[in-house]
Amino acid sequence: MASGNLPKHTLYGFEPASDRRGLIASLAQNAEAMVPGKVRQLRRALFEDEVLARPEAEALFALERAQKGRAGRDWTKFFVETLTDHLVWRGQPGKILDHETARWLIVEADRNLTPAVYALLAHVLAEAESAPAWFVEAVRARGEADPVRAALACA
C-alpha cells in the first residue's frame, strides 16, 4: 500500500483522523472523560493537517457537554484555546468577531453553560479586537449564571 493511502491515525479505535468531526462525536457519544492523555491525542489528531472547521467546533461543544464536570484543566485549556483560534484568530478578517459568529457562539454556550464554556466566552472577548456590543453584554449576563458563579467562587 502506498504511503499516501495509509490511514492517518485512529484515536481509541473510533474514527480515522480524516473524519475529525466523527472522531469528536464518538468521544462525546461514549461520554469519554477528557483526561490529559486523551486531550494530547485529540490535539494531535485535530491539528495534524488542517485548522478546525465549524462542524468540528460544534462537535467540541458536544464533547464539552458530555464531560458533566469530569474534565480537568487540560481539557478546559484545550477547549478554550482551540475554539478561540477557530473563532477569533482564523476568522475573516482576523481578530474580528462578526455578528453571525457571535450569535452561533452564544447559541452553543446557552445549550449548556459550563465553567469551561464561560471561560471560552471570556477568552474570545479578550482576544477579539472587535466584537458586537450585544455580545459583550451577553457574556457579562452569563457571568451571573449560577454554574459560573459557583465555579468562580471555588476557584
Summarize the SSE layout with pairings:
Layout: H1 20-29, H2 36-47, H3 54-67, H4 73-89, H5 99-111, H6 115-127, H7 133-142, H8 146-154
Helix pairs in contact: 1-3, 4-6, 6-7
Polypeptide structure, described:
By secondary structure, this protein is mainly alpha-helical. The chain has one domain. Helix content is 63%, strand content 0%. The chain has 8 helices and no strands. The longest helix has 17 residues, at 73-89. The protein is globular and about 35 Å long. 31% of the residues are buried. Residues 1-17 have low confidence and may be disordered.
Proportion in β-strands: under 5%
Tell me the span between the first and last alpha carbons: 52 Å
Structural class: mainly alpha
Give the proportion of residues in helices: 55-70%
Order of helices and strands: HHHHHHHH
The overall pLDDT average reads 80
Count of all domains: 1
Which of globular, elongated, flat, extended, rod-shaped describes the shape?
globular
Low-confidence stretches are 1-17
Largest sheet: none
Question: How many distinct helices?
Answer: 8
Q: Compute the gyration radius: what is it?
A: 16 Å
* DSSP summary, beta strand count: 0
